[in-house]
């Protein structure tokens, strides 16, 4: 079977509320405030940030647009954009899950909404080619989840029929988009529950 991993919040740490609280302590005192600011900053990964994710605008332009839209100083917005790579640290339990799935004989791929600068950082910093046979970053292919085209591109790129693909993602819309194309898919909340789900599907032994 071919197992497809999302990256942010699945393979790599991505918790916008705590991330923003760390980068902007002068603006954010609680995780609740962090979540509110994150919804404005990242626009639920639509808007300006969605264009950045999709590789249609670069880092300088997304900084300019977010600053203009929100009134936050450009230097502070740039501070957040520059700090994202250090937030994207591997989640140890997911790395173990990846190794166990490979040991069980499965082929692993990734499908990630990721701006090009961060995709480059991850590719250069972590052993992606050791963990995954192949993968697609939205910023490089100029398409984005949950759009149908990136899933179609993934099927072609992975050389797999939809029914052969098992997709783990932490956003319900992306899971639903995969299911609509006849992928097997489920919502990732943490590595332990994902492991239990994979065991229940007989893709891993208990």
Automatic annotation (TrEMBL):
- The reply to whether Plastid figures as a keyword in the UniProt entry is no
Recorded hits in Gene3D superfamilies, A to Z, give: HAD superfamily/HAD-like, Putative phosphatase, domain 2
Please provide the record's keywords in A-Z order.
Hydrolase
Is the Lipid biosynthesis keyword given for this protein?
A: no
UniProt-listed CDD domains: HAD_sEH-N_like
| InterPro entries membership | HAD-like_sf, HAD-SF_hydro_IA, HAD_sf, PGP-like_dom2
Q: What is this protein called?
A: HAD family hydrolase
Which molecular function terms from Gene Ontology are attached? hydrolase activity
SUPFAM superfamilies of this UniProt entry?
Answer: HAD-like
